[in-house]
Amino acid sequence: MTLGELVKNPKGFKVVGIYRISRFEVKTARNGKSYGDCLISDNSFEVPAKYWDISGDSAILFQQNGILRLEAMLDYFKDSPQLTIVGGYLPSPVEIDQSLQSLGMMAPRKIDDMVSELTAIITSIKQEGLRDLLVAIFDTNKPFAEKFKRHPGAVKNHHAYIGGLLAHTLEVAAAALDHCNRNDRINRDILLAAALVHDIGKVREIEVDAFGMGIGFTREGKLLRHISLGMEMLEHACQEVGLAPELGLMLKHCILSHHGQAEWGSPVEPMLLEAELLHYLDNLSAKTEQFSREAGRAEPGGFNRSATLRREVYRPSLE
Ligand SMILES: [Fe+2]
Ligand SMILES: [Fe+2]
Predict the structure, then answer these.
(1) Where is the HD domain (predicted)?
(2) Domain spanning 111-293, CATH class
(3) Which tens digits make up the pLDDT trace of 171-222?
(4) Is the pTM of this model over 0.85?
(5) Where are the domains of the chain?
């Protein structure tokens, strides 16, 4: 049963199912006993949960495993659903693998299919230097290529699942391609190359757990963030393939300005048509994912207050 379905039941409803432990902390209750304070999630909802009088062994099980089979009871705290956990067990590796999609931990598209699309886009780049650069980054550099195809797009904000970075990158590139097909004033090769490399720094910025889910920022991620890390990686690849300086400059400007303005993390505003478009296309992909996810957490015909979007999101009753 999904968490979205579970929370429609009355207090006392019992459930057994495989869920993601998004957050877990051992705390001390007023009676001096230890309890587990958790956040349980799947791709439909997230619910806070308490595991009262937790044993040392169970605490270790919850600390070390991001996915568990939970035996729990539905409760309400100040009208909001909350679970009381009765037991937690380790699912088999096969069960874990089969649950990744429903737990919102895996990209909706197959990773191999997305890699084929990435390769096709790179092959379609006509400017030889840019094509060589993209091959050097996404194909020849095997350690990077392996990480990139499974990396999450974020810890929380958008595309925060295995393969999310590749899914987001392809969404930006596909929307860019569509826009180029309708506007011959755009430098197609620059915009496509910029779309593909704009977030490569996230591979070094986001720290992942054993499953490949983002759990926070790495040390260099915190200190430098993905825009500067991506610049460093791009500069290295430009040197490696001997990219024409002006092309390198345009691509670097696109990476640097893709967040649009200083308060969103870009040291310069877009000063190039392709850079401006990249900023909007990046936002288009992010907002599409955020709105559909946040609306999915509301009842049909109801609103959900989204912390990420800082507003209420409406889910139409007609679906
Ligand atoms: Fe970014
Ligand atoms: Fe992005």
Answers:
(1) 165-287
(2) mainly alpha
(3) 999 999 999 999 999 999 999 999 999 999 999 999 998 889 998 999 999 9
(4) yes
(5) 3-99, 111-293
